[in-house]
Amino acid sequence: MARRGVPALLSAATLVIGGMIAASPSSAAPAPTTHAPLTASAARAHVHTHRLCAHPSEPGYMACNAVARTDVKQQLSLRPHAAPSGYGPSDLQSAYNLPQSGGSGQTVAIIDANDDPNAEQDLATYRSQYGLPECTTANGCFQKVDQNGGSNYPAPDSGWAGEISLDVDMVSAACPQCHILLVEANSASMDDLGTAVNRAVAMGAKFVSNSYGGPEDSTDPTSDEQYFNHPGVAITVSSGDSGYGVEYPAASQYVTAVGGTSLQQDSSARGWSETVWGSSAGGEGAGSGCSQYDNKPAWQQDSGCANRTVADVASVADPATGLAVYDTYQASGWNVYGGTSASAPFIAGVYALAGTPGASDTPASYPYTHTSALNDVTNGANGSCSPSYLCTAGDGYDGPTGLGTPNGTAAFTK
């Protein structure tokens, strides 16, 4: 059976960050494309979060890797000239040196379990708020299908609906000109989610985002790799939200495993800085480590893990420096979400900006030949481990952030 999501988040005591949280309903024009600043250093002691999906309770099932801030007040609409809390598209485009144009004609597929009945209308609110082009069924930009390619959608679920909102908003932030294909699996089983991946590829998507994971299993390389072995398709997978440790399908040798960072504005030439999302105490943060069962791909050369090492690249995922997301299915509108469920669809959008992969390529290999086009993350940890690079950032490759975060799109093309 499908994993059930959490109920609508409670309006806990509001943490006013940057003085920009608004609660008064308004039908006024959209706010400027600025964010209410969130800084990990200032806010972390006060951050309260809630996973949107429960951990898998049985083998073969997955959980979404989305985390909601419960100390930032949800709001259905905003005061005039107010901005949602959390980073918006212009912030992410600045932080990762992304073009505002590009990706026209590309389709990014989002794979999730269960239905979000409000997906299209919530996406419209997000894109209108930030001045992004309309993306609707009517204009051909947005399409939602079940895992068989039809409209017999699965049962709705509040947790996965929040995940879907996060996914489509992050693709929009990275690649505003991209089309979005939402494929809803019947349940959170790997078989149903994998069937949805295959459906997305069959429908022509060259970029497929998967923001879920579960415990590794010895049968993964033989029973589940069929869902991810798609030459010429960039498949991204979130690395997990529980700190040091490996999840599947991030461990697949055919996918780009995406870790997570804390992202903050600063006075550097870049204007931003990043550290690993997590702490040396572990328990929360981007997943990473050495796979127990999956083979090491030829393009991965780190010496401390004979099998597949997670992750490959990263982007913002820390809910303390989280993303503005609009979600109304058993939720109350503007939220601040994080988790590596944010970074996987964002990186899928970056791949789409970079262009269609070579027909016989494994696009996960691309960043390994363009390391100078990535921001190397050198500080932070998501747990304790040996060898230490599997859980601790340093110069060059490390587990929690891989080779680094996007600095433009050059690292995501051949």
Automatic annotation (TrEMBL):
GO function terms (MF aspect): serine-type endopeptidase activity; tripeptidyl-peptidase activity
Record Pfam families: Peptidase_S8
Secretion signal, residue range per the UniProt entry: 1-28
Record domain Peptidase S53: where: 86-414
Highest taxon of the lineage: Bacteria
CDD domains: Peptidases_S53
InterPro entries: Peptidase_S8/S53_dom, Peptidase_S8/S53_dom_sf, Peptidase_S8_Ser-AS, Peptidase_S8_subtilisin-rel, Sedolisin_dom, Tripeptidyl-peptidase_I
Keyword line: Hydrolase, Protease, Serine protease, Signal
PANTHER family, per database record: PROTEASE S8 TRIPEPTIDYL PEPTIDASE I CLN2, TRIPEPTIDYL-PEPTIDASE 1
Entry-linked Gene3D superfamilies: Peptidase S8/S53 domain (3.40.50.200)
Region (Disordered): 80-99
Protein name in the entry: Peptidase S8
Presence of the UniProt keyword Transmembrane in the record: no
Source species: Streptomyces noursei
Lineage summary: Bacteria, Bacillati, Actinomycetota, Actinomycetes, Kitasatosporales
GO biological process: proteolysis
